[in-house]
Specification:
The complex is a heterodimer.
Chain A lengths: L18 H8 L2 H21 L7 H43 E2 L3 H7 L8 H12 L4 H10 L11 H26 L2 H9 L4 H30 L2 H6 L4 H11 L3 H26 L15 E2 L2 H37 L4 H32 L3 H9 L8 H22 L15 H24 L4 H9 L4 H12 L1 H17 L2 H6 L7 H9 L4 H26 L2
Parallel strand pairs in A: 1-2
Chain B lengths: L1 H15 L8 E6 L3 H15 L2 E6 L2 H11 L7 E5 L1 H9 L9 H6 L12 E13 L23 E2 L6 H14 L1 H14 L8 H10 L4 E5 H10 L5 E4 L9 E9 L6 H11 L2 H9 L4 E2 L8 H4 L13 H4 L1 H10 L4
Parallel strand pairs in B: 1-2, 1-3, 5-6
Antiparallel strand pairs in B: 3-8, 4-6, 4-7, 4-8, 4-9
The chains are: A mainly alpha, B alpha/beta.
Chain lengths: 555, 333
């Protein structure tokens, strides 16, 4: 995207003489819609940022001296490691399943999405359970060789990077695969006819063309990594998030915790802005789908790839799931009760509604960015995706405080509103769903916006020539072209909401327990075996949209 | 289909209407997990007809929730684990003092708030566990002794980020002062056999597997682990019997400052501390009753009796931030 001057936007820059009227004229249509969407994230972010009004120098001094140096280094290594790991895995796997032909390709194309349904904290727990000193593998090794001292330590920096990469690569895989599937295979074929080797075709043509999608995927992974608490807590690997929780729960200073969170948000904002600039002014153009894959691998190589992918699939999904099923079976009788259908229903309902809301919000933002290229619109659109980078609990508080405040104001004016329950908005699903939108706009928006950039101006202009404008243009031209992006967005958000814990816990109405709440109930006392049952059900329910997406996106 | 549409209708209703409280209802915010509280609430409802609505979450978010809701909170009562958290709730002005002769009679003074804002309902002891193959009980004595060089590369600990360890260190600060406690914690860190663990159960398993010889954990984790895998060579040792006594902590409850039904909440707390309900409250979680008239679960009796530390548990809250900073300085992750 080139740095557009206001003159490039369809609406010329407002004259400065009448700022108020000009503002009213400026803030209309899609701009207004985009601004309203971004408010959902902005309000909690501002609440978090406002913590800078209450500095607590004593807590800060302590953290700066004894906690932050280690933590910054740890966070940096983790971010670099996971970005690299998910990038390499996601791109390689996407390339293999999108444009190569080998035995089992169709199976792997969708099977490799499945780890998306497995919460990272579950993968982490299973990995430690299996691979740590007391796990079955090392116990066996000790029985055979008398010692397992040479075995690499899973609870280490390398271990946490590995596990998080294995848990999060699907974000890159999904977006990169979309890019490889729909990008001009003809361009690749043209490259081949010009004598470029396969490898050169990949490096010189496919990778540069897919770069925005790959980077968007890695950005999501980075945000997720920076906001993660569950996984690093299981490894006891101290990151920025750990410091935030320490300030809050250990040193009783929510304001310091929020200040730390604000710094995290600013870092991510800088990342997002850099990524935007770095994307450059390329225009992308899809040449539609072609069903034929380009590269047929030689049998020997093809089977080797199959074998390796099979092992990879076992490590990232089959083995963890099996372990969970084994644990579930052992506790099924005491844990399963008649309320399970209800938990499943709540999880599915909330995830589905949230997915639809996020897709609509993401579409509005993405379209507004397409129509208007002025910096305020772009700034607000970017800002509204930052909820994904704030640790969940902090964002939950950031959402709850303004809602409770509003409730208190409303009840002060109109006491009859609240009955005797003392609440109007809080404790309703509306608040919960808005909170999900605030948190998960990023994956939705990134998937949709990546697809939006593929629609060419000429396609739009042709439609305009036929008299299509505004809503109808969006509905009849963009939405059909965006189908893959919209589905990807909906899937990512659906599965993310299913796994989400802190916002669900804090904003759920009485009795609205979900599978994730169930997992929390078990894990908060370290009873992982009991948590296996809700976790398995959560994974299985999460598989449904993955299957659906695969069917929709075709092979 | 009928079932689905009924569900849909109730779900949509939940979108717009916050529920209203009825007169004979107690609303509870609980950081104690559902499976440990629901059975008692069901029993109470059956006995008295009082309905109980509750919501669970971690203690930090629950306190923020109470704070943000202010006078319009639906909550009548707060249940949480660890005196540090209870003290914090009182300190933030979220609870109200309760004058109750019943509670004062049933709960020993060191297990409730001196200002009567919260009351311990179950006791957990945090003591020393050892590998029976490598350690004789007579080698063990105190928490402080685990810092001595003879335990070099033999000690396992849970992370300092867990409030249970913060409370243990806070109580040591109360007993020994900061300087000496810091020396002890540094000694512990020097003696670690492996990186600290993220939970007690994993740490106990490491003691059982011989990755280390001694560790510190809460009694109920030991109880649950031995119930599942009874053949592990892990022994329990009551620490500091010749000095201050075993470090104990509580889970407990208080009536919220802006409770709509404070009398109902107080009645519920009194019932939970009563002889009739104590076993129900403590046995499911393998904890000790707070009420001295009540016998613990037979499994717990089998571990032998112990002398608890009698410093008031509220000190755990007062000194928690001090303890966290001290552990950071000592390099205890």
């Amino acid at each position: 995207m080139k740095n557009a001057s206001p003159a490039a936007s369809p609406v010329s820059a407002p004259p400065l003489r009448l700022p108020r009227i000009a503002l009213a004229r400026w803030l209309t249509g899609w701009r207004l819609a985009a601004f309203l969407v971004s408010l959902v994230t902005l309000v909690p972010l501002v609440v978090v940022l406002s913590s800078f009004l209450y500095p607590q120098s004593e807590v800060w001094n302590h953290l700066a001296e004894h906690v932050l140096p280690d933590i910054l280094l740890n966070t940096l290594w983790l971010s670099l490691g996971v970005a690299f790991g998910t990038g390499v895995l996601g791109v390689t796997l996407a390339w293999l399943t999108a444009v190569c032909e080998f035995p089992g390709r169709r199976f792997f194309a969708w099977a490799l999405m499945l780890p998306l349904a497995m919460p990272a904290y579950v993968t982490a727990f299973v990995a430690i359970g299996l691979l740590d000193f007391t796990g079955p593998l090392q116990t066996l090794l000790r029985e055979w060789f008398g010692s397992s001292a040479w075995f690499p330590r899973i609870r280490s920096r390398g271990g946490v990077i590995l596990v998080m990469s294995l848990a999060l690569y699907p974000y890159v895989y999904l977006l990169a695969r979309n890019a490889f599937m729909t990008q001009g295979r003809r361009a690749l074929e043209a490259g081949q006819s010009l004598g470029l080797s396969r490898r050169m075709g990949f490096v010189r043509i496919a990778l540069p063309m897919a770069r925005p999608w790959i980077v968007a995927g890695i950005m999501l992974v980075l945000m997720e990594t920076l906001a993660d608490f569950g996984t690093v807590a299981i490894f006891n690997y101290d990151t920025f998030t750990t410091a935030i929780y320490k300030a809050w729960f250990g040193l009783f200073s929510l304001s310091t915790a929020s200040q730390l969170a604000s710094i995290l948000v600013l870092i991510v904002f800088a990342l997002v802005a850099t990524e935007q600039r770095w994307r450059g002014a390329r225009r992308y153009q899809g040449s539609g789908r072609s069903q034929a894959t380009t590269y047929r691998l030689k049998p020997a190589l093809g089977w080797t790839v199959s074998l390796l992918l099979g092992l990879f699939f076992c490590a990232t999904f089959a083995i963890p799931l099996t372990q969970l099923v084994v644990w579930s079976a052992s506790v099924f009788a005491e844990e399963f009760d008649a309320r399970y259908p209800m938990f499943i229903w709540h999880s599915v309902l909330l995830s589905a509604i949230a997915a639809v809301l996020v897709v609509v919000a993401g579409l509005i933002l993405s379209y507004a960015l397409r129509v208007y290229r002025d910096w305020p619109t772009r700034f607000f659109a970017r800002l509204s995706t930052l909820g994904y980078a704030v640790p969940g609990t902090v964002l939950a508080v950031g959402i709850f405080i303004p809602v409770a405040w509003l409730d208190n104001r409303l009840l002060a004016w109109l006491p009859q509103l609240g009955g005797s329950g003392g609440s109007v908005l809080k404790g309703t699903l509306t608040v919960m769903l808005l909170a999900y939108v605030a948190r998960f706009l990023a994956p939705g928006f990134n998937a949709i916006d990546s697809a939006m950039q593929r629609i060419t101006r000429s396609q739009e202009e042709a439609a305009r020539g036929m008299g299509l404008y505004g809503w109808r243009l969006l509905a009849q031209v963009h939405v059909p072209l965006l189908r893959g992006g919209l589905l990807t967005a909906a899937l990512m958000v659906f599965v993310d909401v299913m796994k989400e814990m802190p916002i669900t816990l804090m904003t759920r109405p009485f009795g609205w327990d979900t599978l994730a709440v169930r997992v929390f109930e078990m894990t908060s006392e370290g009873q992982w075996e009991l948590a296996a049952l809700p976790a398995v059900v959560l994974v299985l329910v999460g598989l449904l949209p993955v299957m659906l997406l695969t069917r929709q996106s075709g092979q | 289909m009928k079932f689905l549409s009924a569900l849909l209708v109730t779900s949509v209703a939940a979108l717009g209407f916050a529920s209203t409280a009825s007169a004979d209802e107690v609303v509870v915010y609980s950081a104690r997990i559902e499976q440990l509280i629901k059975p008692m609430f069901d029993a109470y409802t059956k006995q008295t007809g009082t309905t109980i609505k509750f919501v669970t979450d971690k203690e930090g978010p629950l306190l923020e929730k109470l704070k943000a809701e202010g006078a319009n909170t639906p909550a009548d009562m707060l249940i949480t684990v660890d005196a540090g958290n209870l003290w914090q709730a009182a300190h933030e002005g979220l609870l109200r003092p309760v004058q109750s002769t019943v509670l004062n009679a049933n709960i020993p003074a060191h297990l409730r708030d001196p200002g009567n804002q919260w009351f311990g309902l179950s006791v957990r002891a945090r003591t020393i566990f050892f590998n029976k193959k490598n350690v004789k009980p007579e080698d063990l004595s105190t928490y402080e002794d685990l810092a001595s060089p003879k335990w070099k590369n033999r000690l396992c600990l849970r992370t300092s980020k867990k409030v249970y360890n913060q409370s243990l260190v806070a109580m040591m600060i109360e007993e020994h002062g900061e300087a000496k406690t810091e020396q002890i914690v540094k000694g512990w860190v020097n003696n670690l056999a492996t990186d600290v663990f993220s939970d007690d159960t994993k740490m106990l398993e490491a003691v059982g597997a011989g990755q280390c010889d001694v560790g510190i954990a809460n009694t109920y984790y030991y109880g649950r682990l031995m119930e599942k895998k009874p053949d592990q060579p892990i022994g329990i040792f009551w620490a500091n019997q010749k000095t201050g006594g075993v470090h104990v902590n509580v889970s407990g409850a208080g009536v919220t400052k802006h409770a709509k039904n404070p009398a109902g909440a107080q009645k519920l707390i009194e019932w939970l501390a009563s002889e009739q309900a104590q076993n129900l409250y403590t046995d499911a979680g393998m904890e000790f009753p707070v009420n001295p008239k009540v016998k613990p679960d037979p499994v717990l009796v089998g571990w032998g009796s112990f002398k608890p530390n009698l410093i008031n548990v509220s000190k755990a809250g007062e000194l928690q931030a001090t303890a966290v900073k001290l552990m950071d300085r000592a390099g205890y992750k």
